[in-house]
Amino acid sequence: MIIRVPDLKEEVRQLAFQEPAARLNARIAGSPGSDDQHFARDLAVVAEIYRSERDVHFQGRVEGEVRAVCARCLEEFDRPLERSFRFVILPRPLATDDSEDDEGVDHYSGDELDLGPLVAEQALLALDSMPLCSPDCRGLCSRCGANLNREECRCSEEERSRGASRPLSLRGIAVRE
Fold first, then answer.
1. Closest CA relative to residue 41, chosen from 17, 25, 60
2. Number of folded domains in the chain?
3. Residues 151 and 102 occupy one common structural domain
4. What string of pLDDT tens digits covers the 177 residues of the chain?
5. Which of 70, 86, 159, 161 can pair with 133 through a Cys bridge, CB separation 3.0 to 4.6 Å?
6. Kind plus residue range of the DSSP H or E element containing 27
């Protein structure tokens, strides 16, 4: 969504718009883990924006749905995506400054401000680095491949007693009883 900065006033202006899922999915395509999750539908953005002198204040919430593949059991699942954000958008300084801006600070130049990249950044930051269908997901048996959330593994009793059905990532961890 493009906003004309001169049209903004000190009074808060309410915004509601959609950020297209296809555009967001195109941004994550080809990156590591991009096959693991994608936006299932367009994101709803509810926000407010106002100007204080030359600074633009933009805050709100992005909501949507993510379709992901569980990192443990490899089952596909949907989860809600919700993230609040707050930005102060300053005029771009004329001189190049190598210092880093604080989180939540961005810049604009000219009379138009594209809010889409700011919303997209927040949506991408809300993705899980390791999506799980449930915090209690038991994963797959490393021997027979059984989904331990739905069925018992088909490993022999001897293999189970040696910990072979423990997920690979947990094999080296000693279990105290």
1. 25
2. 2
3. no
4. 898 999 999 999 999 999 999 999 998 887 776 678 999 999 999 999 999 988 999 999 999 999 999 999 999 999 999 999 999 999 887 665 555 556 678 888 888 899 999 999 999 999 988 999 999 999 999 888 899 999 988 887 666 666 544 555 555 555 554
5. 70
6. helix 21-28
